[in-house]
Amino acid sequence: MGPTIARPSWDEYFMEITKLVSSRSTCLRRQVGALFVKERNILATGYNGAPSGIPHCCEVGCLRDQLGIPSGERHEICRGLHAEQNGIIQAAKHGINLSGSTAYITDSPCIICAKMLINVGIRRIVCGRGYPDQLSLEILGEAGLEVEYFGED
């Protein structure tokens, strides 16, 4: 027998990739990454930031900070899209079906993203940090999706 090699579990592997994806974020408040995986194959990625061709918050400032809006509230007052939204859009743009996949996300989803993840047919959600949105977790539970926390604070 050869030497033993310590390999990460699949969840560890995909969460590490998700953290790398989040490093592309242009949000000044919270850098989030999302990765959609089916049968151990990466289908799509997304990170939070402004739509293509629009100046990013890191260039023009954060409207939510300027208005004193707390995290987890008034999602519509933001120039950026969430990581999950960008991942779903990327998949749609390239004709990739996310139904039955696992979503790896650096943070638990907000209510808007939770509803999108349910409707796109995600079967499992693995995330790092929590996010202050209790309704999101309730809706996901009603849909039979539990958020599994993995390897973060």
Describe it.
It contains six helices and five strands; from the N terminus they run αββαααβαβαβ. The chain is α/β, with parallel strands linked by helices. The protein has a five-stranded mixed β-sheet. Helix 5 links the parallel strand 3 (102-107) and strand 4 (124-129). The termini are far apart. The model has no long low-confidence stretch (mean pLDDT 93).
Helix and strand topology:
Blueprint: H1 10-22, E1 33-38, E2 41-47, H2 57-60, H3 63-67, H4 83-93, E3 102-107, H5 111-120, E4 124-129, H6 134-142, E5 147-149
Parallel strand pairs: 3-4, 4-5
Antiparallel strand pairs: 1-2, 1-3
Number of strands: 5
| H/I helix tally | 6
Query: Strand content of the residues, in percent?
Result: 15-25%
Low-confidence stretches: none
Q: Cα distance, first to last residue?
A: 38 Å
Short description:
The chain has helices at 10-22, 57-60, 63-67, 83-93, 111-120, 134-142, and strands at 33-38, 41-47, 102-107, 124-129, 147-149.
Key attributes of the depicted protein:
6 helices; 153 residues; single chain; alpha/beta; 5 strands; five-stranded mixed β-sheet; 34% helix
